[in-house]
């Protein structure tokens, strides 16, 4: 049932992730398309403003030149006569030096009416009239791309200036850049000018440009530069700058949701594995309890036999068996209780200085007496130290458990090396065996409670998955550390670091 629920939860999590990713991709693609359209719109508006600005700059230049020309008394005569009907002065501009040039320009100003001073050094009225006419010619002529011959000479002069200051991309570029900058567009571009414009831009795209603006007339008739467009490279920088917040939030959302789902799935798998481990532990611990209980039951039953009671040797042997098995049960119960106490942090650490050489040798001798297989335990102290400040009982339990594991998982001819060294501020005890080893994937888990390396449905080596967890808790209580190195078929090394 749990397995089915876990599979359903995994499918739901995967479906949610796929849906979330699909939605994010959909939103990002749509936003990208919208941003691309926005880029095209903004670039076209900027280009239109740039073209208008370039024309405005040319008009400014020509307007100033015309105004100065009109003030040249050798070229033009500005006169004024008073109109009694309208009660204002009418100003006339006439070209000098050519009697055949009958063209004149006469006009009145709605907000200005002054006679031309007789004092020729006072040019204020002439400047005002010349400025107004130059502005009029700018608005009616240049900005409309036509030239009206208000006086023959003035028309010719203005035409010359218009041809001299024609449309130029070198003048357009800085003006265009201003409007692009205002829109935060920094995409590289170039201009293309043609005599005949076409809506087919395939040729332009073949040149490596991703986007081209609409065409604007240059009104340049002296050569083939009749239409101008701006060609842009990939607008990715602009699009990314506009999409930065969306991309970041989408990425953050995916990371957070993915992280939560990974944690959830890891927790689920851990709970699932813990359930399997606990079931395995219950099976093993049941076996561990049943064996000594059965042995004690048989021994007690035998002791009730009058024949056995009459034989002192057999009687004592059965009593010893019963006592040993009860001690085994007691040790097992102590281990389970001690693990719970250590995990709660309630176990007191009663540190004292001990001669660790003697303690380790006692442990080694005890294991040599208990084991029935051929075994050599080689002990070496390279630390040049004799004492260490630890809880003696916990120190003994930790070393004993490591050596016990080394013996259990070694072959019939076990070779175990116990080496003591001093490394910085720690006394390290290395226990190395020539046993069956552990797969790399299991190394990080063997110190967890109840965990036993999977060997199928059978466990040829007796155990209950408490020993190494017991060692882990002891090392934590002593502010020490532990490390395991192992390879399948090549043995295992376990190092315990005790603070000095």
From TrEMBL:
Pfam families: HATPase_c, HisKA
Transmembrane segments: 7-29, 243-265
Identification of the protein by name: histidine kinase
UniProt cross-references to InterPro entries, sorted A to Z: BphY/WalK/GraS-like, HATPase_C_sf, HATPase_dom, His_kinase_dom, HisK_dim/P_dom, HisK_dim/P_sf, Sig_transdc_His_kin-like_C
Signal peptide: none
Superkingdom, taxonomy of origin: Bacteria
Keyword Secreted: no
Catalytic activity: ATP + protein L-histidine = ADP + protein N-phospho-L-histidine
Recorded GO MF terms: phosphoprotein phosphatase activity; phosphorelay sensor kinase activity
Enzyme Commission number(s) of this protein: 2.7.13.3
Keyword Nucleus annotated: no
One GO cellular component, as annotated: plasma membrane
Protein's organism: Pedobacter miscanthi
Keyword annotations from UniProtKB, A to Z: Kinase, Membrane, Phosphoprotein, Transferase, Transmembrane, Transmembrane helix, Two-component regulatory system
Residues of the Histidine kinase domain: 284-500
Any one Gene Ontology BP term: cellular response to phosphate starvation
